[in-house]
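Morning!

This is the sequence you dropped in the shared folder:
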Amino acid sequence: MLKQRAYQIGRLHFEAGDARGVAIGAHGTVLAEDSYHGRIVTMPVDAGESRMSWHALTLDAIIPEGAILTVSAYVCDAQSGSEGALIERFARLLAQNASPEVIADETGSVLACREVSPKGMPLFSAEGRFLWLVFDLTGQPGITPTLIGARVSFPRQTALEWLPEAYRADAQSAEFVTRYLGVFQTLMLQMEDEIDDTHEMFRVDLTPERMLLWLSGWLGIEDAVLFEGPRLRTLMAEAMSLYRMRGTRACLSRIVEIYCGERPYIVESSRAAEHLSGAALEHFARLYGANPYRFTVILSGARITGSRKYKELLGVLRAWAPAHTEVALVALKSNIFLDQYAYLGINSHLNATMGVRLDGRGALPFVALLDKGGGAKLGA
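The structure's back. Tokens below.
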């Protein structure tokens, strides 16, 4: 039995081929903006031998509901002209919706198989030195398939070779048994690929979305369910460095930034006595508390939408706070309120007082003061 080889097809092959209506990126190829159909014609895979019997194709792609990814495989034994000119001619014929017969006449390449949204497909009908792959991506507004790559294996190996000689005595019967077993062989190859790629499940940047919560348990991250998608990946990637400085101001600040995308202001009550005294200290204690083991985390109100978000973030802070401390969370309002949490340049601004004319085009601001003389003065 000949040793089977595998050829990996990815971003470089997509860029070297002909790509139309798609955006090729480091994390996959998707439909271009405002495009609902795209096509990639890859550069040919050269097996190095004429009349090569290809084995199977394994697809690495994300195909959400409402999206379609069609894979077509063409084979030929000789290339007429330069590779670049052949790719251009191939893409032009496909753009014109030319029939497989016309493509075969023009390029010498025969359509071996075509499947819609496959995880993998056998290439038992593909025989030739060069293999062309055509990927057609179809989507809807806001929905696009993501093509990451593909792997092609050759030469052809079937489960029939593991059976007694009697199953290969008749050519027609052998072909039927080969195709029948090929269905189960494809499933087996997919399972083998998943086993071979098991190590990727332990990498934060590669593990599937469904495995994130499971993997976060290995790191002992509490309330991981509150960190969704990219936020949880960031937290897991930084978990070791955060654990080393757990309970510090820097750690809490980074946790909040990961959770809601904004670095907070943290006021530690224990430091107030070092800089304040008398009435100022009393005023500080009324806002931030007199308990020296209390700290207050301050964020803009836009980052804390609703009581549920507030409770979730407060729970996260308590999980990462130092032992025996009291945590307070303040959502800054967007206007000045005396004796409340007002920070110039953050949630409030001072502006010059100006007159108001009720001429059908003016509007009173949030605070307006009408004096006894009937004039108007604008507040902040």
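Headline: The CA atoms of residues 212 and 233 lie 8 Å apart.

More detail when I'm at my desk.
O.
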